[in-house]
Amino acid sequence: MLAIGRGLMTNPDCLIMDEPSEGLAPIIIQGLWKAIAQLKEQGHSILLVEQNAALALQLVDYVHVMSKGQVVYSARPQELRDNEDIKSKYLGI
C-alpha cells in the first residue's frame, strides 16, 4: 500500500504494478484489490502484472498472456475465461 501511495504522489499517467499480491496474506490481498479497484474507478490507468490470473481477471479491462517473454494471447477478460486451451496451457487453470 505504501508503494502504491508513493507511486501516486507523482500523479503518473500510468501506474505500473508488478505482482502486488505476492507474499501477502489473503485478507490483505482483499484490501489491496479494493484499493486498486477504487483507483480504476477514479480513472487511473494501471498496468498490472500478476500471476494470480483469477484475481487479476476481476479488475482488468484487457489481458495479455506472456510466455518466455512473448505475448501469446491477448483478449478481453471474458474471452480468456472462456478459452480453456489457453487457461490450461499457460495459466494452470
Structural topology:
Elements: H1 2-8, E1 14-18, H2 26-41, E2 45-49, H3 53-56, E3 63-67, E4 70-75, H4 77-82, H5 84-91
Parallel strand pairs: 1-2
Antiparallel strand pairs: 3-4
Helical percentage: 40-55%
Number of domains: 2
Specify the biggest β-sheet.
2 strands, parallel
Structural shape: globular
Give the SSE order as H and E letters. HEHEHEEHH
Tell me the number of helical segments per DSSP (H or I, 4 or more residues long): 5
Structural class: alpha+beta
The first-to-last residue Cα distance is 28 Å
What is the gyration radius calculated from CA atoms?
Answer: 14 Å
Q: Could you tell me the mean pLDDT? A: 92
Pick out the low-confidence regions: none
- Tell me how many strands there are: 4
Describe the structure.
The chain is an alpha+beta fold. The protein folds into two domains: 1-50, no CATH class; 62-93, no CATH class. The protein contains five helices and four strands, in the order H-E-H-E-H-E-E-H-H. The protein has helices at residues 2-8, 26-41, 53-56, 77-82, 84-91; strands at residues 14-18, 45-49, 63-67, 70-75. The strands form two sheets. Strands 1-2 form a two-stranded parallel ribbon. Strands 3-4 form a two-stranded antiparallel ribbon. The radius of gyration is 14 Å and the shape is globular. The chain starts with a helix and ends with a helix. The mean pLDDT is 92.
